Backbone:
């Protein structure tokens, strides 16, 4: 599995990949096309599922890490995320916790095992400072073997000791430095922490700024660095229990409107907007009827939320009288502040109105029917496109799709599956000279091809086709192919 | 050739009429159809934003949908999304991208039923965040088309509809109706575009276009503007001068 994203000016790049992907030679930062070809080259068995590509979503990534932080409360009362734009590490204050778990080694092992039960590989390290623990987790601990720094009094000192401290051989990357600083250090021949530790701080400050000096001091515990505890927000919910159950639709709608207003107030108080709402209607003696709404952009406007919920509620037949109603905000996000910038005001208005439109369309038609289409580097025409749901703000307006074809090289309408047709071919070159589509004969005037496509063997049966762009004497243009295995002809598209 | 006083008077009156109807190209936002030679056939040198345009295809796979998509692409260049509405789920994105459509700015709606399709078109035409709506529209009652026209006028969205040959001659609220007929050719694809009707102008003018398969540019092979055919009777309802911007 590969997570990918677009990098400015560099196209689609791998952000991270699974162990199986790394075994194929895939590395973060690699172009997606190269990763795809690596998997194809190294594949031997046709039953191999192949490469699974998915777009990297930093918001989901952070959300998953926050969920883990809440779960880690069982190990420590203070758990926080590293303070980065895209955090990838959890900090726990385990001072005094060793006695509860037996020892620090047992605590580290316990954490590692609990993560493994959740099918997660975690590198666990315990050290005296956050900086040292971060570096040890990255460069000393492994997924199999947690690391616990020795608790000697002079453990974290800059000077090299005769016995050699555990941190002496750490690379400079263990200091949580920006990539540009790391690169400059490498250019100066400084690759290890011990080289850096022995340099005068004043010179480092003058050459690299205060980030490097601060990180060094944090690593050696020469300045304080605290964990910002992650506190899971209180769930946002509005609920009504009815003394007398009702099946009257208008009454239910009115109650839903009241609850939405309550939820909207909660969202506004937190300066947040809902991304996912769930309305539960508990009917007498039945399972709760659930209405789920996924929004394109965070929204807190009661009128908009109400419209989306009622749109679905109106299509439902309630199985009985409703005795309680609840609306839960399942997912929310901070709303961007509304700045009154004249230049950009119109564009912002358009995006907001588009978001309202998408929510409304997805509410009635279903989120799987309001999509964006994304091109994939697959030679088989029917696999060259994938749908991307517009729900939960996943839309990206900033990427430019690649254009692998010339205009009119591919048809605007593609039949899936291809339609079997009868074709009369020239005896010499076996190019089509007449089509018969649904019993109607079309003599051909202009034929362009063949374009041979041989692909898809990793999906099972190999695809071997010769494609032709043909124009009938009446001027209609079609895209047909001959299946090379059995010479059967198919209509695959129309240049409509 | 100098124009006669009668012709000059007709031109003057036509300009005044267009100005009264709000169709003066200098006073309203006009978007190119993607081909300057077709633009020249239209009174405003292009399509007015907030209008419905119909490309009526003479035969299947004649290129009408391609021309409609090119116009929708042009409309969405200045901002706003392009909304593609298609029930058949046969819209092929690689072809659209090759024609210059920005897929990152394109929303595809795939309704299951005709009723949902019409509702989705209506909603999209009403949104100010949408620059153009592209759809195949087969059977349609005139009331729905009128509702769409008002919706498009309110938002400034361009409605680009591909219509079957049966609708030729039927009354319509579309501002421009184009008849798209393929012209068999040995090399580049050739398409004859005939203006069946346009508000503020006369129909009947046509142009034979050639589409370069390498660059995708559309160019006239020859023009035939002299053979004007009077199609005014097809206009079923007179369009009001300045419409109320509400639906």
Residues:
């Amino acid at each position: 599995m590969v997570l990918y994203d677009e990098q400015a000016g560099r196209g689609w790049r791998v952000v991270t990949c699974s162990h199986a992907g790394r075994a194929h030679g895939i590395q973060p930062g690699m172009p997606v096309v190269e990763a795809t070809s690596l998997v194809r080259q190294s594949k031997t068995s046709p039953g191999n599922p192949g490469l699974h590509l998915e777009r990297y979503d930093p918001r989901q990534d952070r959300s998953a890490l926050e969920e883990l932080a809440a779960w880690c409360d069982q190990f420590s009362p203070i758990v926080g995320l590293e303070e980065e734009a895209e955090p990838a590490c959890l900090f726990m204050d385990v001072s005094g916790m060793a006695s509860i778990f037996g020892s620090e080694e047992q605590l580290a092992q316990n954490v590692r095992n609990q993560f493994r039960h959740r099918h997660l590989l975690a590198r666990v390290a315990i050290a005296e400072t956050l900086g040292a623990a971060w570096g040890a987790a990255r460069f000393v601990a492994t997924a199999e073997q947690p690391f616990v720094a020795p608790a000697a009094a002079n453990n974290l000192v800059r000077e090299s000791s005769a016995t050699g401290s555990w941190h002496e051989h750490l690379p400079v990357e263990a200091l949580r430095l920006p990539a540009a600083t790391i690169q400059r250090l490498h250019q100066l021949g400084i690759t290890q922490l011990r080289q850096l530790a022995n340099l005068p701080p004043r010179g480092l400050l003058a050459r690299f700024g205060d980030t490097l000096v601060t990180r060094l001091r944090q690593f050696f515990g020469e300045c304080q660095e605290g964990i910002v505890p992650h506190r899971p927000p209180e769930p946002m919910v509005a609920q009504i229990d009815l003394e007398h159950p009702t099946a009257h639709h208008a009454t239910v709608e009115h109650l839903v409107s009241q609850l939405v207003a309550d939820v909207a107030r909660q969202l506004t108080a937190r300066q947040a907007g809902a991304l996912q709402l769930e309305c539960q209607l508990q009917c007498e003696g039945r399972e709760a009827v659930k209405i789920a709404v996924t929004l394109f952009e965070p929204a807190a406007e009661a009128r908009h939320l109400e419209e989306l919920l009622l749109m679905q509620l109106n299509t439902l037949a309630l199985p009985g009288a409703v005795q309680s109603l609840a609306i839960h905000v399942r997912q929310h996000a901070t709303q961007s502040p509304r700045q009154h910038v004249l230049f950009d005001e119109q564009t912002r208005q358009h995006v907001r109105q588009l978001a309202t439109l998408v929510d409304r369309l997805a509410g009635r038609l279903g989120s799987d029917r309001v999509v964006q289409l994304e091109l994939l580097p697959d030679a088989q025409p029917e696999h060259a496109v994938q749908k991307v749901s517009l729900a939960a703000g996943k839309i990206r307006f900033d990427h430019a799709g690649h254009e692998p074809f010339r205009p009119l090289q591919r048809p605007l309408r593609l039949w899936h599956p291809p339609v079997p047709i009868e074709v009369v071919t020239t005896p010499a070159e076996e190019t089509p000279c007449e089509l018969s589509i649904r019993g109607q004969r079309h003599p051909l005037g202009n034929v362009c091809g063949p374009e041979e496509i041989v692909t898809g063997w990793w999906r099972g049966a190999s695809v071997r086709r010769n494609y032709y762009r043909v124009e009938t004497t009446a001027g209609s243009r079609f895209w047909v192919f001959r299946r090379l295995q059995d010479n059967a002809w198919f209509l695959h598209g129309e240049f409509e | 050739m100098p124009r006669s006083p009668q012709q000059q008077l007709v031109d003057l009156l036509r300009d005044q009429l267009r100005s009264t109807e709000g169709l003066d190209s200098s006073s309203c936002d006009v978007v190119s159809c993607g081909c300057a030679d077709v633009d020249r056939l239209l009174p405003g040198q292009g399509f007015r934003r907030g209008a419905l345009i119909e490309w009526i295809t003479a035969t299947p796979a004649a290129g009408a949908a391609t021309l409609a998509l090119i116009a929708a692409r042009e409309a969405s260049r200045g901002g706003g999304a392009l909304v593609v509405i298609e029930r058949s789920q046969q819209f092929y994105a690689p072809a659209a991208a090759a024609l210059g459509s920005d897929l990152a700015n394109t929303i595809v709606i795939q309704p299951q039923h005709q009723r949902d399709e019409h509702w989705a078109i209506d909603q999209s035409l009403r949104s100010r965040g949408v620059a153009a709506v592209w759809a195949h529209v087969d059977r349609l009652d005139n009331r729905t088309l009128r509702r769409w026209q008002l919706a498009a006028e309110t938002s400034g969205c361009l409605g680009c509809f591909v219509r079957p040959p049966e609708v030729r001659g039927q009354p319509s609220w579309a501002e421009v109706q184009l008849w798209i007929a393929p012209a068999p050719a040995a090399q580049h694809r050739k398409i004859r575009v005939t203006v069946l009707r346009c508000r503020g102008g006369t129909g009947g003018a046509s142009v034979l276009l050639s589409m370069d398969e390498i660059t995708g540019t559309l160019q006239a092979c020859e023009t035939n503007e002299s053979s004007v055919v009077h199609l005014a009777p097809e206009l079923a309802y007179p369009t009001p001068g300045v419409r109320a911007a509400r639906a």
DSSP finds 13 helices and 19 strands in chain A. The longest helix of chain A spans residues 342-365. Residues 2-41 of chain A form one domain. Chain A touches chain B through 63 residues (CB under 8 Å).
